[in-house]
Amino acid sequence: MEKKTVKSVQKPLGGVKKSSSFLSIKSSLNSKEESADENAGLDSSEKDKDDFKEQDVKSFWINYLENLKGKQPVLYNVLNTTACKVVNNQVIFFEFPSNSAYDEFETLRENIFQNLKKHLNNYSIEFDYKIKETSKTILLTSKDKFEKMVKINPLLEKLRNDFRLEI
Q1: What is the pTM of this model?
Q2: In angstroms, rounded to a whole number, what is the distance separating the alpha carbons of residues 14 and 17?
Q3: pLDDT per residue as tens digits for the range 43-75
Q4: I need a labelling partner for 89 at 20 to 30 A (CA). Which of 52, 97, 123, 159 fits?
Q5: Which residues contact residue 156 at a Cβ distance below 8 angstroms, ignoring those fewer than 6 apart?
Q6: Hey, how many other C-beta atoms are within 10 angstroms of the C-beta on 85?
Q7: Rounded to the nearest 10 degrees, how much is the dihedral formed by the CA atoms of 83, 88, 89, 92?
């Protein structure tokens, strides 16, 4: 009696069809590249440029801060002092009270700008900022104060020496 050997035939891997629910890194990357190419291919004249008013920007800013208030109260407190206004109908200007406020804003900048452009349906908006100059408070010692007063009135030095006063 002869033994028959049965060989199983395997299909090559390249011929296997993937189901539609199968996730592929390559297909994900390709779809992201295609959508990025579509957006990058549009120059600024083809993107949406709806008109907006300063009130639209301010209402967005107030709503954004209110959403931030519950999630990140420290950022809310810092950014609540920041003013924003519209300049030349295409530039949104932010004025920060300090460098630290600007640094905190930088952590959320891209998110804010993308949401604002989407909210206003205007993708050609430009953003500008300024950090307010703050005067530095210098603490003077008693000796420093006296030396400053002596520059104004040199007779004070003679008075101090005559009465043998200490500073």
Answers
A1: 0.52
A2: 8
A3: 445 567 888 888 988 999 899 889 888 888 888
A4: 97
A5: 146, 149, 150
A6: 13
A7: -30
Amino acid at 144: D
Helix/strand/coil for 7: coil
The Cα-based distances of 74 to 20, 104, 106, 134 in angstroms read 46, 9, 14, 21
**H, E, C per residue of 111-141:** HHHHHHHHHHCECCCEEEEEECCCCCCCCCC
Residue 138, token pair as written in the block: 């210098």
Would you state the structure tokens that stand for residue 87, as one six-digit string?
Answer: 């300049």
**Residue 68 identity (one-letter amino acid):** L
Write b or e for each residue in 30-39: b if 16 or more Cβ atoms lie within 10 A of its Cβ, otherwise e: eeeeeeeeee
- Assign 96 to helix, strand or coil: strand
- 84-97 confidence digits (pLDDT tens): 888 887 888 989 88
110's tokens: 């891209």
Core vs surface per residue 142-167: b (16+ CB within 10 A) or e: eeeebeeeeeeeeeeeeeeeeeeeee
Provide the 3-class DSSP secondary structure of residue 5: coil
Could you give the C-alpha distances from 108 to 90, 137, 147, 163, in angstroms and in order?
21, 30, 48, 62
Q: Say how far apart CA 123 and CA 125 lie, in whole Å.
A: 6
Which residue in the block uniquely carries the two structure tokens 């640094």? 103
